[in-house]
Write a structure and sequence with these properties.
The chain is an alpha/beta fold and 373 residues long. The protein is built from ten helices and 16 strands. The strands form three sheets. A seven-stranded mixed beta sheet has the order 8-7-6-5-4-3-16. The structure holds zinc ion (2 copies). One zinc ion binds next to loops.
Amino acid sequence: MPVTTRLPALLMASALLAPSLHVNAADAPPPSHHRPSGYQNNYIEFQPRGLLDLLKWKRDASRDDLPKPPRTPIPTVAPDAAFIQANARAGVMAMQPAITWIGHATMLAQFGGLNILTDPVFSERVSPLSFVGPKRAVAAGLTLGALPHIDVVLISHNHYDHLDDASVRALARQPGGPPLFIVPLGIKAWLAERDITNVVELDWWQSHTVAASVGAVEVVLTPVQHWSGRGLNDRLKTLWGGYAVFAPDLHFFFTGDTAYSKDFKDIRERFASRQTPEKGGGFDIALIALGAYEPRWFMSAQHVNPAEAVQIHLDVNAKRSVGIHWGTFELTDESLDQPPIDLAEARRAKAVADADFFVMAVGETRKLPKRPR
Ligand code: ZN
Ligand code: ZN
């Protein structure tokens, strides 16, 4: 067929094709975790507990005088500022993969040539009001001013102990320009209200590639079982999640807040082909939320206990894990120092070596082996 006669036929075919593709896309059912009013978990139909349950929890806690004060002080060390700053500037080839615990779910992670902060909270309280609500028991391991230039901020969800207004505003104003904020669906608009626009918003399993100086670092939002909301009228309206971050020198996983669910076996399966033994194996480090688990009747659908945290460590195929989300803010009935005690028992029960699932002192830096390549 000569070109002149073939062209109209092609155009007609493409004209037929285009609308049908469009219609197909529009007809595709939305992902099952998308709901008209917001989002849901994969494996339970979650409803935040109501006021009556909250009152029962608080009445019981008050009767039993919970949480008890910690028996031992939360471990803290002075940060190794010289190492952190030098490492921050080392560039991707010379950078030593390392994590520094700032407290609660806030971790400075240095790998892939990037300085990454998880759920930055530097404020004294995690509450809608600055003068009430859970107060910091231990000073932040690094002050905002002591941070190196942050490239990427990962936000897991919008609860106050993970998304802190003052901290994200301060980071957006850091010298040298704002970091890239990577957030679950719905949080971009909240940041835009604060004139923070350097934001990438992800759905579960969507990824964003950060172009580091050499090589690329891929950030994937993963499902976990939790919920969201900062007030009474926005429950489940923005998404929550964990993050898998793949850099040539480190595979990193961060649970955010989560209950135990099959999502973690799904995560292992999803990434299995890039984590075969020949390719360096599973996650080099997993940051797993350890605290905020008592009483179980109230917390088990939204927060793991240490036994379940160890199961997540096994499920996601982490070479080593660190327990975070404890020791900083008194949120629930267990003592601030209880999570590592329960973790030790859980490790023994599942025959996990002490070094494979550890806790850190606030301010401490752990250097991590580079991923073989
Ligand atoms: Zn939460
Ligand atoms: Zn939390």
